[in-house]
Design a protein that fits this description.
Layout lengths: L2 H7 L2 E5 L4 H12 L3 E8 L5 H14 L3 E5 L6 H4 L5 H19 L5 E2 L13 H7 L5 H4 L4 H11 L24 H16 L6 E5 L2 E5 L5 H6 L1 H8 L6 E3 L9
Helix pairs in contact: 2-3, 2-8, 5-6
């Protein structure tokens, strides 16, 4: 099945819109193929500010209505205590909220941007999506991450080369309780590294320290600016550490 065929068969849908490359392309495709689509962004302490800004920017460019929902994910003990399956509980709560909002607006079909390259075995959140009957057109139509980027570039979407960005909760080791203060420190630290020109990295909590993971090719640049990095992150953490194992994957 192609995306055009999917949206021909499903001409009205709500989309869980993160502002990332996958959901951005899916929103463009829905619009391109005549779907009556509405985008929904759920704002929590798990998302950095730039994600919401990107979501609003793209929705405006495509002329698609965007609804921003607020959610206090840390009020849910199954999320706040950060168990190994935290993502399942979080997705279950957020997509339940999304589904109800979409239904209230007259949209019975809810979509998300999971693509065919995503490994279901490594994503407990996918179980929650299946339970709530959320459809993933990119995955169902066999669209890979590489194709999303290529087709997004051809469509002129600014998200075509946007790095994958997992939620801030992934920076905290499983079993360590999540707090708004800790997540805020991580966000400020990553904003500081972005400002220094670094990309596709993670700042992970390691006790009271920050453990920076970065692609191998960016390591020399980070080391060359270690004084600036230390000055930016030291006020936020007890120590600033560099993980010598290069960052891989999207978490």
């Amino acid at each position: 099945m192609t995306l055009q065929a999917f949206f021909t068969a499903h001409p009205k849908a709500a989309l869980a819109f993160s502002g990332g490359a996958d959901s951005a392309y899916l929103l463009w495709a829905a619009r391109q193929y005549g779907c009556d689509v509405r985008a929904y962004y759920v704002h929590t302490v798990f998302q950095p500010a730039f994600e919401q800004a990107d979501a609003k920017r793209l929705a405006e460019q495509l002329g698609v209505p965007l609804t921003v929902l607020e959610a206090d994910v840390l009020a849910d003990d199954a999320v706040r205590t950060n168990p190994p399956d935290r993502c399942y509980h979080c997705k279950r709560a957020l997509f339940s909220r999304l589904r109800q909002a979409a239904l209230d607006d007259g949209y019975s079909l809810l979509l998300d941007g999971t693509n065919a390259s995503d490994d279901a075995g490594d994503r407990p959140g996918m179980r929650a999506l299946a339970e709530l009957e959320v459809r993933s057109p990119l995955r169902e139509c066999g669209v890979t991450k590489a194709q999303v980027r290529q087709w997004s570039r051809e469509a002129g979407l600014f998200t075509w080369d946007k790095p994958a960005y997992a939620c801030l909760a992934t920076r905290v080791p499983a079993g360590t309780a999540l707090t708004a203060e800790a997540l805020s420190r991580v966000e400020r630290a990553e904003d500081a590294l972005f400002a220094l020109g670094l990309t596709d990295f993670r700042v992970r909590l390691y006790g009271g320290a920050a453990r920076i993971q970065i692609p191998e090719e960016q390591t020399p640049g980070l080391l060359a600016r270690r004084a600036e990095v230390t000055a930016a992150l030291s006020p936020l953490f007890d120590a600033v550490l560099l993980d010598l194992e290069p960052r891989k994957g999207s978490d």
